[in-house]
Specification:
The structure holds 2 protein chains of 2 kinds. By secondary structure, chain A is an alpha+beta fold. In chain A, 50% of the residues lie in helices and 13% in strands. Chain A contains 8 helices and 7 strands. Chain B has 2 domains: 85 residues, Rna Polymerase Sigma Factor, Chain: A, CATH 1.10.1740.10; 72 residues, Winged helix-like DNA-binding domain superfamily/Winged helix DNA-binding domain (Arc Repressor Mutant, subunit A). Classes of the chains: A alpha+beta, B mainly alpha.
Amino acid sequence: MKDFDDIFKQRLEGYEMKLPDTDRDAFLNRQATRERFARRRRTYLSIAVGLPAVAAIIMALVFTISLFSKQDDVPVNNTQTPAVQEQVIPAQGNEGIAEDDADIMICIDGDDHWVTLDGDDDWGKPMETAQKSESPGEEDVYMVVEESPEFPGGTNALMGYLRDNMVIPDSCRENNIQGRVLVTFIVEKDGSITKPVVVKSVNPLLDAEALRLVSAMPKWKPGRQNGQAQRVKFTIPINFRLDYYKNQTKATATESAVEDIMASTKDKTF
Amino acid sequence: MRTEQELARLCTAGDREAQGELYAQYASRLYALCYRYVADREEAQDLMHDAMIKAMDSFRSFSYSGEGSLYAWLRRLTVNVVIDRLRQMSKLRLVPLDQTMETGNPEADEDAADDIPAQVLMDMVAALPSVRRTVFNMYCIDGFNHKDIAAAIGITEKGSASILAKARAQLKSQVNDYLKRTGR
């Protein structure tokens, strides 16, 4: 049997059969195509694996950064919270508001009677109370809305308006009465001003002037919540100052911004 | 000429020239091997390509152990590819019953058989039913034992031995027929 097998084994093992002439190229092309596809597959695979990996890394980074920044935010928030509360106080109570002495001290000076405004940071800001006021029988009034009401032309225009229209009663000037009056009012849905109330009084005469100024304002741009115009309570401080620099010569001679304001106010006020 | 290892390495790296050289050296031998199993030229050609391509990916597992080890490695790989294909086509599961009837086995004249051209022998093998052909090829030519064969094509060892006996008997009668026809 072994011998019979050997006939075949010896003759057929390593036997070569002639292939078609085109077969070599066909094979090489097939292999080349396959390698190309394998490369493409590898590319797709690396993209499929790589992109989520990169995304994950980026997300991890963002998460880490946000963790750190949140930690940084904590003290900032803590310092901001009292500031908000400060602004709420005038809206809730009319009395006992701590006077910002520094503001007034700067202004008090001398015999000359002049009026100017200060540029406090909180100037013209709406009351920061996160609730609607409860006025029975009345439509809701918002303390805070997404889009605050605005004096036409903005805060600077409002300052300009007050500066240009302010009239300080002679008796106040003579008696050196000055200070900051806080007036609260409601900006109606159509932008008109209603219910002006002095929430921080200085002097009845100055209070009256403050109310006159507020009531005489042009229509505001109403505040909006969810795109809808709403009634919004708004508070502005009005500073009545008897300024040191009354003389025109002095006023024109000076160059600071405050002095410029005084100069422009002068003619209209007096 | 490149060494066998270098040829293998370059082929894997996609060197077109090396792949051409590999083809030139081994294609016709592997083609004959495939034909011996599948008895169909086109399919043998296709299988040879598959085997060579698989080799390109598998050269990492090739370790050189002397001249001719690359061919030995390629040959083993090719037989595996062929067996896989045959198994997929479940040709091996169908044992044809029509040719199980064998008349007496006259002893072939082995000396005279030495003169039979290889291609004639090849055709005789190719004429065997596929299971017999596979078992005969694996056992008698490619050096597998019955255990390997049984595991590879899913039959028992006894079944493999039995099939081999029938394959031999059929080949012997064919050899005798050939010798008679050629007047020896």
